[in-house]
Design goal:
This protein is α+β, with helices and mostly antiparallel strands and 189 residues long. The chain contains three helices and eight strands; from the N terminus they run H-E-E-E-E-E-H-E-E-E-H. The longest helix is centred in the N-terminal third of the chain and has 42 residues.
Length: 189
């Protein structure tokens, strides 16, 4: 009798273990599916970015001022407004001279076409690397908003520059300033 109970118990334990394994795989798959559905769009580059053939500077006399420096409308070949180029400034590692970034954002404010560092006086060996193509290209074709990797937030996560955290954060803050400006002042209801 004891052997039968022991054998039954072993069968029950094996079935329970198999059930837990199956349930674990189902949960992992479900979590991955939810994650891909919620976050996946931000990990993929935007494929249908508009081609810009001309830009027209626009007066920003009635803008909120700091940190917005300049604004241009960007048009495609057909003359349709397809993007905004917003110049913003943010303080990086250098406490005396701000970093000035031109962020080109789609007219629907959903994607970043690209950025250009217009001026900076960051540290020579680390911070100055924010102006290099290897860094600025990380932002091209990303869905908005953009965050540095390791920062909480639902959006595209981009790797900063090791040793230049303050400069990298300033670039991301300048992009967010531009995105917010487009959302609040340029988007039509």
């Amino acid at each position: 009798m004891y052997r039968i109970q022991k054998r039954r118990r072993r069968v029950i334990d094996i079935i329970a273990a198999l059930g837990m394994v199956v349930l674990s795989f189902v949960m992992i798959g479900g979590i991955a599916a939810v994650r891909d559905r919620v976050w996946g769009v931000y990990e993929q580059p935007v494929e249908d970015l508009p081609a810009i053939v001309s830009t027209v500077p626009v007066s920003i006399e009635n803008s909120p001022g700091e940190p917005i420096v300049a604004l241009s409308y960007c048009y495609n070949e057909a003359g349709t407004l397809v993007a905004y180029q917003v110049e913003t400034k943010e303080m990086g590692y250098n406490p005396e001279v701000p970093i000035v970034i031109a962020s080109t954002i789609t007219a629907d404010n959903r994607a970043l076409i690209g950025i250009e560092v217009l001026s900076q006086k960051e540290s020579e060996y680390y911070g100055a690397r924010i102006a290099k193509k290897e860094f600025t290209d990380r932002f091209a074709g990303r869905y908005l908003p953009v965050y540095l990797t390791g920062t909480a937030g639902r959006g595209a996560h981009v790797d900063g520059i090791a040793g230049a955290t303050a400069s990298s954060k300033a670039v991301v803050a300048a992009i967010e300033d531009a995105r917010t400006f487009v959302e609040q002042y340029l988007m039509k209801d």
